């Protein structure tokens, strides 16, 4: 009967957030409304990402996209295209990916527009920081709310053409005085975040979210158009058997990173070596780390002294989730969430994942600091 109850007692993300927020006496429902708009953005992007391959197939892809990747299958004749897809299906795909017949927008530009519109129209935000926009977006006074959202609308988008999972990453802060919001209000340490999450667009669409009371995972049921709770109260294993890093940068690593990776491959205590898993899409690598354990590293190196990943909308949200799931996140110098950014697109090295694995890395950096 348990299974039946589950099937008829669907715990959607909206219901789950409402349940959580109703236990918080100060909650006025603003965060709930904001999150429901983020969820809407994720549903749209999931649909567009899934159609992208189709769009390329029926030749909708803009010149640049097609050239950039291996030439997609081009039907030999328009007649053949119409045989594969009904005219209405071609129109549907065209409509969802192209504005008024324009060339297909690059998916990351489209995703950014969707999230900016969804966040502004929620009436719960006063400033937005997006990986896609050089400057922060200050919301017009009439629509201002008390939250700041920092997000990467489509992280890892260079992987779209080969079908590797990509994702949206977001972090949410409260702003003290929304009427007089300035850039200073955005440059807060990650520990001040009130919520963070990511949505991974892969074989299934999974949204992982924390509002400060643990981490929960939801899977999109396309037939319902709802995210259903599938991974309640995620806890990362204390120690893992996987390390995840771009070994191609090994030549430029500093000593502690080099030593840690060496220990993963040639353990001195007779234990078996760790496995290397590196997808090159942060959301996919972090999601695997969260569920299976292990450690994900994007270290500093001689070429990039601050590493590659961005503090406000990659490092902070993923670090927040890791700590909420019982793991930890370190920059090589300090706890990642204690970092105070000085610029909105600032980068930082990052070592995140299983508590004990990151503890080992902290030990190696402490030795170097002596
Ligand atoms: P590299 C993708 O471009 C990204 O921003 C992250 O999603 C990913 O973790 C990282 O860069 C991969 O970087 O240098 O290993 O290709």
What does this structure look like?
The chain is an alpha+beta fold and 370 residues long. It is built from twelve helices and 13 strands. It has helices at 2-8, 13-22, 30-57, 63-68, 78-84, 87-97, 107-121, 183-186, 255-265, 282-292, 311-324, 355-369; strands at 125-130, 137-138, 144-155, 166-174, 195-201, 205-210, 216-221, 226-231, 242-244, 275-276, 295-298, 328-330, 350-353. Strands 2-1-3-4-5-6-7-8 form an eight-stranded mixed sheet, with helices on both faces. A five-stranded mixed sheet has the order 10-9-11-13-12, with helices on both faces. α3 (30-57) packs across α6, α3 (30-57) packs antiparallel against α7 and α9 (255-265) crosses α12 (355-369). The longest helix is centred in the N-terminal third of the chain and has 28 residues, at 30-57. The radius of gyration is 22 Å and the shape is globular. It starts with a helix and ends with a helix. The structure holds 6-O-phosphono-alpha-D-fructofuranose (P6P). 6-O-phosphono-alpha-D-fructofuranose binds next to α10.
């Amino acid at each position: 009967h348990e299974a039946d109850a589950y099937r008829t007692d669907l715990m959607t993300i909206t219901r789950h957030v409402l349940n959580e927020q109703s236990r918080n006496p100060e909650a006025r429902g603003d965060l709930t409304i904001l999150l429901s708009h983020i969820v809407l953005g994720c549903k749209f992007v999931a649909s567009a990402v899934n159609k992208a391959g189709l769009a390329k197939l029926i030749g909708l892809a803009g010149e640049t996209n097609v050239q950039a990747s291996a030439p997609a299958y081009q039907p030999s004749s328009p007649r053949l295209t119409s045989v594969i897809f009904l005219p209405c299906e071609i129109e549907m795909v065209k409509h969802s990916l192209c504005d008024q017949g324009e060339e297909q927008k690059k998916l990351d530009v489209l995703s950014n527009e969707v999230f900016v519109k969804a966040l502004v129209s929620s009436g719960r935000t006063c400033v937005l920081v997006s990986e896609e926009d050089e400057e922060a977006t200050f919301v017009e006074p009439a629509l201002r709310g008390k939250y700041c959202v920092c997000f990467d609308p489509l992280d890892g988008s260079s992987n779209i053409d080969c079908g590797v999972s990509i994702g949206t990453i977001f972090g949410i802060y409260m702003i003290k005085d929304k009427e007089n919001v300035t850039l200073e209000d955005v440059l807060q340490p990650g520990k001040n975040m009130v919520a963070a999450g990511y949505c991974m667009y892969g074989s299934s669409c999974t949204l992982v979210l924390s509002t400060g009371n643990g981490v929960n995972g939801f899977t999109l049921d396309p037939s319902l158009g709802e995210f259903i709770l599938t991974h309640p109260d995620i806890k990362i294993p204390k120690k893992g058997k996987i390390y995840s890093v771009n070994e191609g940068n090994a030549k430029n690593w500093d000593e502690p990173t080099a030593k840690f990776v060496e220990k993963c491959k040639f353990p001195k205590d007779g234990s078996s070596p760790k496995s290397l898993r590196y997808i090159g899409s942060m959301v996919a690598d972090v999601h695997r780390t969260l569920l299976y354990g292990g450690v994900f590293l994007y270290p500093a190196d001689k070429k990039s002294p601050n590493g590659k990943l961005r503090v406000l909308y990659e490092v902070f949200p993923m670090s927040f989730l890791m700590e909420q799931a019982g793991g930890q996140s370190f920059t090589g110098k300090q706890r990642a969430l204690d970092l105070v950014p000085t610029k909105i697109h600032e980068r930082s090295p990052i070592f995140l994942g299983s508590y004990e694995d990151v503890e080992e890395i902290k030990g190696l950096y402490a030795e170097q600091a002596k």
